[in-house]
Each structure stands twice: as C-alpha cells, then as structure tokens.
Amino acid sequence: MTGPDLSLTRRDLLRGAAALAAAGVSPAAEPKPSESDRAVKALYDSLTDDQKKAFCFEWDKKGSSGLPLRLHAANNWGVSGTTVGALTKEQQTLVGEVLKSVLSDGWPEKLARQAKDDTGREWTADRKIALFGTPGGGGCQCVLTGFHLTLRAGGGKDGAAFGGAVCHGHQPSGFHEKPGHPGNIFWYQAREAHKVYELLDGKQRKAAVVAEGMPWYEFDGKIDRRTIRPDTKLDKPLEPDLRFRAGGDLPGLPVADMTRDQKEAVEKTLAALLEPYRPEYREQVLRCLKARGGLEKCRLAFYQEHQVGKDGEWDNWRLEGPAFVWYFRGTPHVHIWVHVADDPAAPVTSHFG
C-alpha cells in the first residue's frame, strides 16, 4: 500500500503552528471550521420537517449517560435511527460535502471503502446521522456514526479538537487481521510510530514499553460495554476510555526525554495521525496541544500485550498528554480512539460498541 507524503504533511503541520504563533492566535481560541459550518448548514436547510424530527436534536440533548449525546464516542453505534442511505440523493451529496469539509482529499473515498470492507454494504447503508443545534443558533454539529466510526463536523464549542472525541477502525483482512495489516488504510500511522521505537536506546525502550495493563475490551470471554462517564470508576483499563489523566499517571516514555532526532520522528508520527483531516482540523489539534505544553508534555507507550504475529512492528501504542489521547489498537484489527482538547476538564463519554 502506498502511504501519504508524510514529509509534506509534516511541513504543513509545522508551517501551521508557525502561522498560528505569528498571527497571535491564542492556543485556547475556539476553532471556527467555516467550511464545515457551511456544509452542515446546507444539509440542515435541505431537510424536511419530518427529517428534522427524526434526527435533529437540541444542542445538549441528553444521551443514556445523562450527559450530552453529541459528546459520545464509540467504535460501533447509531447516534440516531436514520441512515445516510435514507436521505434523498441530493441530501446524500450534501453529506458527502460535509465529509469533504473534514477530511483531506481522497479520505472520504477511503472511509467509504473501509465501510464496504467491514460491513459488506455501501457506506450509506451503515452510517447513521444526527444534527445537534441549529445553524446560527449558537452551535450546529453533524455527527456521523456506524461500524468503526464516530466523526463530527462543525459547531464544536467545548474547546475540543474535531468538535469532540472521534473513533476510526478498519479490518480489511478479517476480524483477526494478518501481520502487517495488508490493505489497512491506517496502518501507515503505526509504521511511523514504530520508527520512533527503532530510534530509542535500551533505557528508553524499557521506559516506553508497557508490559501489562494495555487498555482492552474483552475480559473472561465477555466484552465490557459499559458507558464511561467522566466520573466512572474502573477496575481495569478499558479500550474506549478517552478521559484525560494527570501527567504523572501516564504510561510510556516522555517525549521531553527524547533526543532531537527522536522528537522529530514523533512530530512525523503526529503528522501521519493528522494526515486524514483538513488543515483547519489539524490546526485545532495544534492549538490544543500548545495550550497544554505541546508534544513535550506527552508520552509515547508501546504495549507488549496482544501483538499480531511476530513481524516485529508494534500493533498497539498510545500517544498521550494532559489533554491529548491518541490510542492505536491494532489487535485483532485496527481501532483508533482520539480525544484532544485545550482543557483537561473537557467532557466525554464513550463505550465499546
């Protein structure tokens, strides 16, 4: 599989950070993804009254957790009972424009392929849709969910990048993917993280590798599907836990303890993580990171448990900071959990689908 031009991505990433600083943009300034706002408004304006009743909700409509439903993330769920395929062809085109406002060129098509690979159906048959708030009414966000997806567009007001936590996944070679994850649209990201590991010396590897306690989803043959609220007490680390943790409690090797070339490799890994998204969403992540000390305040952990085969590459790893979680779980297939904000108190709820 041919990967993205990461050198270009990293240049764009660093240029974006410099541009923000030169413009005097506050790290905590609320992002305004104007393209997404326009695309979401066009979709909203196309809806009939019956459609609005079916999947348009108040901004703070409560979910089963008692907290706003729009803040929820999962790897397999329905944010409403309406599929994209239930909309008119013209409205489906408008949903496509919403996706294009969030994703880099080529990535809407990749997510459509991911849905077809993973469900055997066209992406419109699986993806559920909801809109929260109204255009011009203080916030309006479109949320798309389904198998291996939580994705948002526009309207975020909680200081969180992407408008809230997001989730991706892919299993093109089956539920138990083959070593090397052939055909997986996200595997190039793990290869960039593995390059960081290869640059570490023995002492650093010892700090970076976590032998036990990998966030997981199945225990004693049963999947733990409980909803994780901000105040939920857990007796074991769960995969979908996207809450932020205090810096002293984070696993892995501090980026601050790395050499210059190692830090550059981490920057390139971050660029790979951000590559699927439009520049305005990448800039949201940069703002949030800068507000909490940047990559220097993050740690990189490689999990020894649950490796796929013996190909020598790390399937499971996590880049985490005071208000930054990017968890790549590659076993038995790829799941990616993301929550980034400018404030560690940013709320989120989640569960394993």
Describe this structure in words.
With 353 residues, the protein is an alpha+beta fold. It is built from 10 helices and 15 strands. The longest helix has 17 residues, at 6-22.
Structural class: alpha+beta
Written as H for each helix and E for each strand, in order along the chain, the element string is HHHEEHHHEEEEHHEEEEHHEEEEE
Q: What is the total tally of β strands?
A: 15
Please work out how many helical segments DSSP would assign. 10
Radius of gyration over all CA atoms, rounded: 19 Å
Short summary of the structure?
The protein folds into two domains: 6-26 and 173-351, no CATH class; 34-157, no CATH class. Helices cover 33% and strands 18% of the residues.
Give the SSE layout.
Layout: H1 6-22, H2 34-46, H3 49-55, E1 56-57, E2 72-74, H4 89-102, H5 107-119, H6 123-126, E3 128-134, E4 139-146, E5 149-153, E6 166-170, H7 187-199, H8 202-208, E7 209-210, E8 218-219, E9 222-223, E10 253-254, H9 260-274, H10 279-291, E11 299-303, E12 316-321, E13 324-329, E14 334-340, E15 349-351
Structure keywords:
353 residues; alpha+beta; 2 domains; eleven-stranded mixed sheet; two-stranded parallel ribbon; 10 helices; 15 strands; 33% helix; globular
